[in-house]
Write a structure and sequence with these properties.
By secondary structure, this protein is an alpha/beta fold. About 35% of the residues lie in helices and about 15% in strands. Strands 4-3-2-1-5-6-7 form a seven-stranded parallel beta sheet, with helices on both faces. The longest helix has 15 residues. It is globular, with a radius of gyration of 17 Å. The N and C termini lie far apart (about 35 Å).
Length: about 220
């Protein structure tokens, strides 16, 4: 199944972030991606956790599409944060897991898979904290610098990212972000719109035309 829900020759690979060890309580719409997004995805690469929104999303996609649909990449020190500190994360439940030595290696491998993905591949931020924002802005910056041209989406549930989107508008008004680059990151407010936004993503006209081929 492609990003449009139809059988195609390409695969959409999504890198998702949500650095939270617990789901919202009481339950809110922020947990909706766990039930809605997997129905539109074909492949998911994520930070390899078994708890929080991302753990639930990984389990759901594996149950629908099998272990090959999910690849978690996690640094060995973060294994201690997983349930019981067990380094043997079940492939039957969470898909394939690669354990690496550092956060830099994790981010490099995750991004590499997305950049090598087919049409509709891209980066998606769910509700999260510091780690989510750090990785989100890194891929936004890479897009601006011309390192990649994949879509970047914030899944704005219950207005969670309203402040961030307003900050972008303020930065444009203040002259720190050009109007042409304000569209590097796009908003989706419903789970079914996330993949749609990636499939319809248009590269911002203000990106730098830099040659990164030799780096």
């Amino acid at each position: 199944m492609s990003a449009t829900g139809k059988t195609e020759d390409f695969s959409n690979i999504l890198q998702l972030w949500s650095f939270s060890r617990k789901l919202s309580r009481p339950p809110s719409r922020r947990s909706r991606p766990c039930s809605c997004l997997p129905q539109a995805l074909r492949h998911l690469v994520y930070g390899g956790g078994t708890v929080g929104l991302m753990g639930e999303l990984a389990r759901t996609l594996v149950s629908l599409s099998g272990p090959s649909s999910v690849h978690g990449i996690i640094p060995s020190p973060l294994i201690a944060l997983e349930k019981g500190g067990n380094s043997q994360i079940s492939e039957a439940l969470y898909g394939r897991t690669t354990i690496v030595d550092s956060m830099h290696t994790r981010k490099q491998l995750m991004a590499k898979q997305v950049l090598e993905g087919g049409e509709g591949s891209g980066f998606v931020a769910l509700s999260g904290g510091y780690g989510t924002i750090e990785e989100l802005f890194e891929v936004i910056t890479w897009n601006q610098l011309g390192i990649h041209k994949k879509g970047v989406v914030v899944f704005n549930v219950d207005g969670y990212y309203d402040g961030l989107l307003q900050w972008i508008r303020n930065a444009v008004s203040a002259g720190f972000i050009t109007p042409d680059n304000s569209g590097i990151v796009v908003e989706a407010t419903e789970a079914e719109d996330v993949v749609k936004e990636l499939s319809n993503y248009r590269v911002a006209e203000g990106r730098f035309s830099l040659d990164w081929a030799q780096n």
